[in-house]
Every structure is written in structure tokens, then in C-alpha cells.
Amino acid sequence: MKPLRELCGGELPRLVMFDLDGTLIDSVPDLAAAVDRMLVEQGRAPAGIEKVRDWVGNGARVLVRRALADGLEHAAVTEAATEEALARFLEIYADCHALTALYPGVHELLEALSTAAVELAVVTNKPERFVAPLLEQVGLGGYFRWIIGGDTLPQQKPDPAALLQVMHLAGVDAGQSLFVGDSRSDVLAARAASVPCVAVSYGYNHGRPIDEEQPSLVVDSLAELL
């Protein structure tokens, strides 16, 4: 795990925090199915998977607002419309996980880190109630000591609060920690927490190359960290 040692002063990190959607799991097929069903029920045209892929990453509320606006910019969407659509989207998505799958290299990296006694956490903007069941479904249920969802704390990424909370719980400082994500929000949160950030190139970053955000390292597969 030489790349990890190089990012943490020659030693393995004591704590590695991971984003979920677009980093560990490809959840867009299920998210798109739930979004499209919600839109159709409202008499709107379905968005389709490619649009939804660009819209995810900032939590369920923003995803729904973008779906209602049919674009990344969603300032014109009212709170009343958001609340109604969000409630229905969450109902649909609760039973819509059949197409979610692990990315290559994820299990191998988590197994190696666990074997090396590195503490692991998930920090995601997805509502917390969906996270543990999804991890169980894809075979990752036993790896993570801490799970911080998008509604666990008042703040979401790119705010660093969730990363700082996990480091506090683990008793680990920023120099012994690492964050792995796929989006601008992930890179900004890690930077604000003074934590090195590994970004994956295959994730969801609103259609932009993740290297534009200048993370500490970009990889095409988490297996590269081995």
C-alpha cells in the first residue's frame, strides 16, 4: 500500500474515510429509476440515467431539486415543490436498490486496510437510513466503524464537519487520516479538514474531470492503492 504511505508521511494512515456513491458503489441506476418514477408520477418527462449521473453528490434534497429543474441549477424550484417531490422520491428509493453494485477493487482495498488494523468510516451525503442497508447488500457491512450520512449532522460535505467528527471519535489527527471520494465536494471537505484526498476518476463529479479539483492523488481504481 505504498501510495497510502506516501500520502501519510511514510506510514499507513490510522483512519481512512470513504465517500459512498460514486466511490465505493455505483448507485446511479437505482437513483435514476427512483427519480424517473417520481417525475413521471408528477406528469413530467423522465430524466434518464446520464442526467442523473451528473446531478448526484450533494444529497437527496439537491438531487430532487435538480430533477425538478431538469438541470444542475435549481434556484427557481420552490420549497413546497421540493418537499412534496422529496418525500415521494425517498419512499420510492427505499425499495429501489437492486441495481446498485460495487466498483472493482473496493473489496480488496477494504480487506487489506482492515487486515492492517486501519480504522474505516463512510462519510456520505446520502440520507443515513439508506447507508447501512446498502453496505450490507453489497457485502461491505462489517468494515466500517463509523457511518456519517447527509442528515447525521447539520452540515453536509463540502463542509468538513463530518470528517472532523470522525477524526474526533477515532482519536486520530489529520496527518494520520485520509479521505477517498469522487467529487468536488469530497475534495473541498478534505482540504478544509487538512486531510489528504484520494479521488477516483470513475465517479460522479457533475460531468467534470475530478483532477480539475487538484486532489492529492487520482486513481482509476481503488486497487491502485494496493
TrEMBL record:
The protein's job, in short, is: Specifically catalyzes the dephosphorylation of 2-phosphoglycolate. Is involved in the dissimilation of the intracellular 2-phosphoglycolate formed during the DNA repair of 3'-phosphoglycolate ends, a major class of DNA lesions induced by oxidative stress.
What gene is it encoded by? Answer: gph
Q: Name one GO cellular component term.
A: cytosol
Q: Which reaction does it catalyse?
A: 2-phosphoglycolate + H2O = glycolate + phosphate
Q: State if Transmembrane is listed as a keyword.
A: no
Q: Where is the signal peptide?
A: none
Could you say which EC number(s) this protein's record lists? Answer: 3.1.3.18
Record Gene3D superfamilies: HAD superfamily/HAD-like, Putative phosphatase, domain 2
Task: Please state the pathway this protein functions in, per its UniProt record.
Answer: Organic acid metabolism; glycolate biosynthesis; glycolate from 2-phosphoglycolate: step 1/1
The residues that cross the membrane are none
Biological process annotations from GO: carbohydrate metabolic process; DNA repair; glycolate biosynthetic process
Q: Where is the active site?
A: D19 (nucleophile)
User: What positions does the entry give for Mg(2+) binding?
Assistant: D19, D21, D182
Entry's Gene Ontology molecular function annotations = metal ion binding; phosphoglycolate phosphatase activity
Enumerate the cofactors the protein uses. Mg(2+)
Similarity remark: Belongs to the HAD-like hydrolase superfamily. CbbY/CbbZ/Gph/YieH family.
**Keywords of this entry:** Carbohydrate metabolism, Hydrolase, Magnesium, Metal-binding
Q: Record keywords: Metal-binding included? A: yes
Q: Which SUPFAM superfamilies match?
A: HAD-like
Q: What is this protein called?
A: Phosphoglycolate phosphatase
